[in-house]
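Students often ask why inverse folding is considered easier than folding. One informal answer: many sequences map to the same fold, so there is more than one right answer. In these notes we will look at a single instance of the problem. The structure comes first.
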């Protein structure tokens, strides 16, 4: 079921429940009013009956005649009875009305009593006169009142049905109006394909939730467009990096097969093919490590002291690369050691920082590299600075893309995987990495982590 119809149906059901409660309340109030009115009419008839039979000798003749005329105008199906102090019927011959003594006593106690006798409304009235104390009963069927109630019930039922129909139609119209912006967005989204990811969903000027949805969807499209371009760039770079050694291998083999060669030529060709194959292996291993960086990030999760990690890395670097000077400096270290901790995978963090340091030495011709650690409020800041070739402004935003290599870096060995892997690992540890650089004057990589504390 579409949201439009579901909203209209829910609106109709809710309105129906409210109307039903109101109509039931109206009917009950009307029923109570009709019953009270009829009981009041019976009380008047009981009083007139008492006056006709008990006040004839005390009232003026003209006034008694007026009362007698009223007495004659009976209610359809009316029946009455007068009882004396001995609970004996008087003045009126006993008929179908035979009131139990208990009810007579109740009337004497309460002076006035309303009840139902054989399914009909009845009234008992205590009347004191110079002739004695009497109890007058009058009962009758309220056919007119019941007919009125049934008529009103039909009116209420018809009004309810018509109201429900009107509410459903109005609900459909309102839901259509409310969902029209979503339908407009839906039509636009249907036209967005890979070929026009630059398109954006138009927003209204209402600044409502629909506009917020459109804005969020546009943000998603922007991320998708960037990811799509990155994918295209990755495929292009990967094709180039893989094609180069493959082309070299094919060329070497084609040349060696053109004619008979001596043993030295075959050995030279095989070594060249082996070197190019090693490059292919390095590229594929790097890509495999890049894809595994996300899934392995939280394997062996632990609390890591970043100052200890950096000192261990410096000692390892000094032993393996004595020709490369890595200067390590600690700034503003807190007294609370837990502020130097982050949670994650130690081996992957070492790999990420190593990749940055390795690039710093590679592109600076093994000039000294500075690494500093600083603790600021709730963040740990690691800064790695070199004096190398720097990064061109147009390449700064793309150096973290897999297999991307800047134009001024193509003369150096490598495949453009290290920085991409470092970024993935750092971001997986809730960290951020950025770079500031000036061509010809080196680069500075800034890595920040939120501390465990």
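Output (designed amino acids):
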């Amino acid at each position: 079921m579409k949201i439009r119809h579901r909203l209209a149906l829910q609106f109709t059901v809710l309105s129906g429940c409210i109307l039903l409660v109101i109509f039931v309340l109206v009917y009950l109030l009307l029923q109570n009013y009709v019953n009270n009115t009829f009981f009041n009419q019976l009380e008047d008839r009981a009083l007139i009956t008492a006056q006709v039979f008990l006040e004839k000798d005390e009232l003026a003749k003209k006034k008694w005649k007026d009362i007698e005329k009223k007495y004659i105008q009976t209610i359809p199906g009316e029946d009455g009875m007068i009882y004396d102090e001995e609970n004996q019927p008087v003045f009126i011959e006993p008929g179908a009305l035979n009131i139990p003594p208990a009810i007579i006593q109740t009337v004497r106690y309460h002076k006035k009593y309303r009840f139902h006798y054989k399914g009909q409304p009845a009234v008992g009235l205590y009347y004191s006169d110079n002739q004695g104390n009497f109890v007058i009963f009058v009962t009758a069927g309220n056919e007119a009142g019941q007919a009125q109630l049934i008529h009103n019930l039909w009116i209420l039922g018809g009004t309810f049905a018509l109201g429900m129909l009107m509410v459903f139609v109005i609900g459909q119209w309102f839901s259509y109006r409310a969902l029209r912006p979503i339908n407009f967005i839906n039509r636009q989204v249907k036209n967005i394909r890979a070929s026009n990811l630059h398109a954006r969903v138009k927003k209204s000027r209402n600044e409502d939730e629909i506009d917020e949805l459109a804005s969020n969807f546009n943000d998603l499209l922007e991320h998708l467009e960037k990811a799509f371009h990155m994918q295209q760039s990755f495929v292009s770079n990967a094709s180039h990096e893989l094609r180069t050694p493959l082309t070299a291998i094919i060329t070497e083999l084609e040349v060696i097969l053109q004619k008979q060669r001596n043993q030295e030529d075959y050995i030279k060709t095989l070594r060249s093919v082996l070197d190019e194959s090693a490059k292919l292996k390095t590229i594929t291993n790097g890509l495999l490590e890049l894809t595994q960086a996300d899934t392995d990030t939280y394997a062996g999760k632990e609390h890591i002291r970043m100052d200890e990690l950096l000192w261990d890395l410096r000692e390892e670097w000094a032993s393996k690369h004595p020709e490369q000077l890595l200067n390590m400096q600690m700034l503003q270290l807190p007294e609370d050691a837990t502020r130097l901790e982050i949670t994650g995978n130690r081996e992957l963090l070492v790999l990420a920082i190593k990749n940055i340091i390795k690039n710093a030495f590679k592109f600076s011709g093994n000039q000294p590299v500075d690494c500093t650690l600083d603790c600021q409020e709730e963040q740990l800041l690691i800064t790695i600075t070199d004096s190398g070739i720097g990064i061109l402004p147009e390449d700064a935003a793309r150096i973290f893309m897999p297999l991307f290599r800047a134009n001024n870096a193509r003369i150096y060995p490598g495949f453009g995987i290290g920085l991409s892997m470092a970024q993935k690992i750092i971001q997986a540890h809730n960290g951020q990495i950025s770079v500031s650089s000036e061509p010809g004057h080196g680069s500075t990589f800034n890595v920040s982590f939120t501390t465990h504390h």
